[in-house]
Design goal:
By secondary structure, the chain is of the alpha+beta class. 35% of the residues lie in helices and 31% in strands. The protein has 15 helices and 25 strands. Strands 10, 11, 14, 15, 18, 19, 20, 23 and 24 form a nine-stranded antiparallel sheet that branches. Strands 1, 2, 3, 4, 8, 12, 22 and 25 form an eight-stranded mixed sheet that branches. It has a four-stranded antiparallel sheet with strand order 13-16-17-21. A hairpin with a 6-residue loop joins β10 and β11. α2 packs antiparallel against α3, α9 runs antiparallel to α11 and α13 packs across α15. The longest helix is centred in the first third of the chain and has 45 residues. The termini are far apart.
Length: 562
């Protein structure tokens, strides 16, 4: 018995076998950890592969926005995943704006035209050792990727000048800018042919008004003096092209407007669209070379706003004694500018313009002078960026398509007063106007009206070579009136009035006077057409026409953005 007790006591105190027990327990734990490590390693490797596949699927889908689902699915299958791994393919709009939280930059459904795709994948990774702990045979991996593509263009609308008349330009620009400008035809031709980059101009303007910190958006929202804008254009011209005839002409204009109180919001001049959030000084991979004259013309019209322009112009045309001009330029539609950067769907609009030309026509015999008022109203014309076709890999095959709608035109010979010119809420409906005073309380009055009806947009294609050359293209309404004055005079209703009462029974003498007046007016149809052509061209307007040009194109391949 004592011996048994000694053995038990010795066994209780003997710890020589503890290491074996601990080793067995630790080995079991290590084997379990190794098994988990294998499963975790597999999960991490498969996660990288799934994310890479999602990234690639998003890029391919973004490059094929019209067939995004099929493109993404095909990419996933090619990477050895089943098509069922594609959970969702969403097209939307991606905005590259640092001021927007990363997770909010992609919006679906698209705002306007889609430019990005978000692909979501779910894949399954088999579990080996971990299945005994989790009870699951596989682990689900979710991956999301967003890719976007850029197809953008810069384009302009209006601003035409097919022929130069120095006198008309000096008179109208002087009135629009509220100063005195005296340039020669050669000066104007140099301004027309010289171009500067729109982004270089904006940078020079930012420097001049001390807005070099922040984004272009701040500059575009600023209300800046016309003097600073013209001075910035001069600075850009000098740094780009050096001293030239355009430098001298632009310097004269800059000096003339230096003290002008007129201002304009820069965004009404140039709209950078998706590039407005770039830091001042940065330049996107898209340019816009603008004619200096077009820039000055746009500045003059926009800064003038709804103010009326009144001036006399001596055009030295046969049969015309005097030409007085009244012009009212309405506000452009909200958000529209003269130059637009953007993607498919963005639009530009010209301002509604009213023109009243008071012409004194030299007569003959009993009708020595005819006072002829011609009123023309041109509604806003529109150009929309319908498509940007990017040629890859040969960019020279790229092209841009605009949808262009010329402005509606109303023209009258009637008693339209200067006071009616500023009221853009309604169209004039004038009574007959007195053309000739015959004496003895007798007068000849006339009324005529012609119009160009509404039109649907016309597609205008610009090839890459057109864009590089800065070619302007003109869209004309299908029912364009080749001679507005001729049609007005053809519609002219002439009557002789005694006091304010029309005389319906006319003797041979009175009938002869009416025929004399008609003959005199028909004889000056060509000079009157030239008057309107010069004035409207100076203002950047064509009767029943609109001019457009595409100045730059940017085609980026699809890139991963998140």
């Amino acid at each position: 018995m004592a011996r048994l007790l000694d053995l038990l006591r010795h066994f209780r105190t003997d710890n020589r076998a503890s290491f074996v027990v601990m080793t067995a327990g630790l080995m079991t734990l290590m084997i379990g950890c190794a098994g988990l490590a294998v499963d975790l390693g597999t999960i991490f490797a498969d996660r990288r592969k799934t994310q890479s596949t999602a990234d690639l699927a998003a890029i391919v889908a973004a490059a094929n926005l019209n067939n995004a689902v099929n493109a993404a699915t095909a990419t996933v299958v090619q990477n050895k995943y089943p098509a069922s791994a594609v959970v969702k393919v969403e097209t939307g709009t991606y905005t590259a704006n640092g001021a927007i939280a990363p997770q909010a930059r992609f919006v679906t459904p698209a705002v306007g035209t889609a430019n990005a795709v978000r692909v979501t994948l779910n894949t399954q990774t088999p579990l080996f050792f971990a299945r005994y702990l989790t009870g699951q045979r596989s682990f689900t991996i979710k991956a999301t990727a967003v890719a976007s593509t850029t197809a953008a263009a810069s384009f302009s609308i209006g601003s035409r000048l097919l022929s130069v008349n120095g006198g008309a330009l000096n008179a109208l620009l002087s009135s629009l800018l509220g100063t005195s400008i005296s340039l020669s035809v050669m000066d104007y031709n140099s301004l027309i042919s010289t171009k500067i980059d729109a982004l270089d101009f904006l940078q020079a303007l930012a420097t001049r008004v001390n807005l070099t910190v922040g984004t272009y958006d701040t500059l575009l929202k600023a209300n800046i003096k016309v003097g600073d804008i013209i001075a910035a254009a001069l600075s850009t011209q000098q740094s780009t092209n050096g001293a030239s005839a355009a430098t001298t002409a632009l310097s004269s204009i800059s000096q003339a407007v230096a003290s002008s109180p007129a201002k304009l919001v820069t965004g009404k001049l140039i709209d950078l669209g998706p590039f407005a959030n770039l830091t001042v000084g940065q330049k996107p991979q898209i340019g816009a070379n603008v004619s200096i004259f077009d820039l000055i013309n746009a500045v003059a019209q926009i800064s003038n706003g709804t103010h009326q322009v009144a001036t006399n112009i001596d055009l030295n045309l046969p049969g015309l004694a005097q030409v007085a001009v009244y012009v009212t330029i309405g506000e452009r539609p909200v958000g529209s500018s003269w130059v637009q950067f953007g993607t498919q769907g963005v639009s530009l609009h010209t301002a509604q313009t009213r023109l009243l030309v008071l012409v004194k026509v030299l007569g003959t015999g009993s009708v020595s002078l005819i006072k002829l008022p011609i009123y023309v109203e041109v509604a806003s014309a529109t150009a929309t960026l319908n498509a940007v076709s990017c040629g890859r890999p040969d960019i020279s095959t790229s092209q841009v398509t605009l949808g262009v709608t010329p402005g509606i035109v109303d023209a009258w010979i009637g008693d339209v007063g200067v006071a009616e010119m500023n009221d853009f809420t309604r169209k004039p409906n004038p009574p007959p106007v007195k053309l000739v005073d015959l004496g003895n309380l007798l007068t000849i009055r006339a009324l005529a009206h012609v119009g160009i009806g509404n039109t649907t947009p016309t597609s205008v294609n610009f090839s890459y070579s057109d864009i590089q050359a800065g070619i302007k293209k003109t869209v004309t309404t299908s029912n364009f009136l080749s001679s507005l004055v001729g049609n007005l005079l053809g519609d002219l209703d002439l009557k002789i009035y005694l006091l304010e009462v029309p005389l319906t029974l006319l003797d041979t003498v009175l009938s002869g006077v009416l025929n004399l007046v008609k003959g005199i007016l028909i004889g000056v149809t060509a000079p009157l057409d030239q008057v309107l052509s010069n004035l409207l061209s100076t203002l950047g307007i064509g009767i029943g026409q609109v001019d457009t040009s595409v100045m730059g194109i940017r085609c980026d391949g699809a890139v991963l953005v998140s």
